[in-house]
Amino acid sequence: MSPTVGVDVPAVIPQGAGPENWYAIYTCPRHEKRVAEQIKQRSFLCFLPLYRSVRRWKDRRKELELALFPSYVFVRMALTSKLQVLQLPGVVRIVSFNGQPTALPTEEMEAFQTRWSGELKIEPHPYLRAGRRVLVHSGPMQGLTGIIVRRKDCCRVIFSIDLIMRSVAVELDEADLEVM
């Protein structure tokens, strides 16, 4: 399992079940891996981005794989199948606005799945709206826009998913960035 992609399963959804879109599923705290595994067992396409973090206790250190977006799992499904997902233990709700489940942009979800590899150092970051927006013009994140921030000697770009108000920070070379 790569450090950024947890569960990624081929979809086996019945024909004629309606259009499939990506939805954010809100889970009970620290139930992301269990919910993703249950979604996988129901033959839905599921995406759970993970990152590695070293935790220290008095007597030891341990490297853990944690959810990049705590309490969120992404699933591709037709809305006619939402009951199958909502009935899973650990699932709280589908992220909705005005009572209607809101689909995530397919391009954004594909970018999270295909462009982010284990060679990038990714970690959660507070959601940011203000700041200098940049376009990544080369490298694995090519075509994505984010907000540039500085931390010590490295350049980080914050990529945000507005629907769930979550962000991640990725260290990138400044030569790959273009100010918008």
Notes on the structure:
- There is one protein chain.
- The chain has three helices and 15 strands.
- The protein has 180 residues and is mostly beta strands.
- The protein has two domains: 5-104, Alpha-Beta Plaits (2-Layer Sandwich); 122-179, SH3 type barrels.
- The strands form three sheets. Strands 1, 2, 3, 4, 5, 6 and 9 form a seven-stranded antiparallel β-sheet that branches.
- Strand 7 (96-97) and strand 8 (100-101) form a beta hairpin.
- Residues 1-5 and 7-16 have low confidence and may be disordered.
Key descriptive features of the protein:
180 residues, mainly beta, SH3 type barrels, 2 domains, seven-stranded antiparallel beta sheet, six-stranded antiparallel beta sheet, 15 strands, 45% strand, globular
Instruction: Identify low-pLDDT runs.
Output: 1-5, 7-16
The major pleated sheet works out as: 7 strands, antiparallel
Order of helices and strands: EEHEEEHEEEEHEEEEEE
- Helical amount among residues, as a percent range? 10-25%
CATH class group of the largest domain = Alpha Beta
Number of helices: 3
The beta-strand count equals 15
**Content of β-strand:** over 45%
CATH superfamily of the largest domain: NusG, N-terminal domain
What would you call the shape? Answer: globular
Number of self-contained structural domains: 2
Rg of Cα set: 17 Å
CATH architecture group name of the largest domain: 2-Layer Sandwich
Query: What's the rounded overall pLDDT mean?
Result: 84
Instruction: Tell me the CATH topology of the largest domain.
Output: Alpha-Beta Plaits
Termini separation: 35 Å
Q: Based on helices, strands and strand pairing, what is the structural class?
A: mainly beta
This entry's quaternary arrangement is single chain
